[in-house]
Specification:
Number of domains: 2
Number of helices: 7
Number of strands: 2
Strand order of the largest sheet: 1-2
CATH architecture of the largest domain: Orthogonal Bundle
Shape: globular
Largest sheet: 2 strands, antiparallel
Distance between the termini: 64 Å
CATH superfamily of the largest domain: RNA polymerase sigma factor, region 2, helix turn helix motif
Length: 180
């Protein structure tokens, strides 16, 4: 018999406290889920709202989570993906990626260069529509292979390759337009 999420906390069992189990999972998964959402909606306030909705849905259906089938973060990201789709259905206007605060992607080691790189990436990503941004984020931010992207999105592998190629071409064209 498979163990449901409320019976598993990390590798240890928590026999009778689903609330404590969820809180532990939440603390561990929040940064990953928030960053996943932020990279797709490119607006801090919207990312916070969508992240809240994803975790509310996860809490509502926590009894369906099976720790033996997937990690909690993977499960919540699949919920978050659906929340992002809902967000774009209800508010098709996308955020201006140029408004992303400096240093959002910055690392302590080289803050200045990371800030410049993040600014450039934001400007290049603004040339893409939300579906293209999703593909680029999955491929280059999350490091997924095309076959994984195709499986996750339920589309043909060659379609993923073609759309990624076109998205990269758009970004290159945008970079060319930025050159002096």
């Amino acid at each position: 018999m498979a163990q449901t999420g409320w019976k598993m906390v990390g590798r240890r069992r928590s026999e009778r406290d689903p609330k404590a189990a969820f809180e532990q999972y939440y603390r561990e998964a929040y940064p990953l889920v928030y960053n996943y959402i932020f990279r797709r909606v490119a607006d801090r306030t919207a990312a916070e709202d969508v992240t809240s909705e994803a975790f509310l849905r996860a809490a509502r259906f926590f009894d369906r989570f099976d720790a033996e089938r997937a990690k909690f973060s993977t499960w919540v990201i699949s919920i978050a993906h659906n929340c992002i789709i809902d967000y774009y259905r209800h508010d098709p206007a996308t955020a201006d990626l140029e408004e992303i605060p400096e240093g959002v992607y910055a690392d302590e080691n080289d803050f200045a260069q990371q800030t410049v790189d993040a600014d450039l990436a934001s400007k290049l990503l603004s040339a893409l529509d939300p579906a293209e941004r999703e593909l680029v984020a999955m491929k280059y931010y999350e490091g997924k292979r095309n076959v994984e992207i195709a499986d996750e999105l339920g589309i043909n592998l060659s379609t993923v390759s073609t759309k990624l190629s076109r998205a990269v071409a758009k970004m290159r064209a945008a970079a060319g337009e930025m050159s002096p």
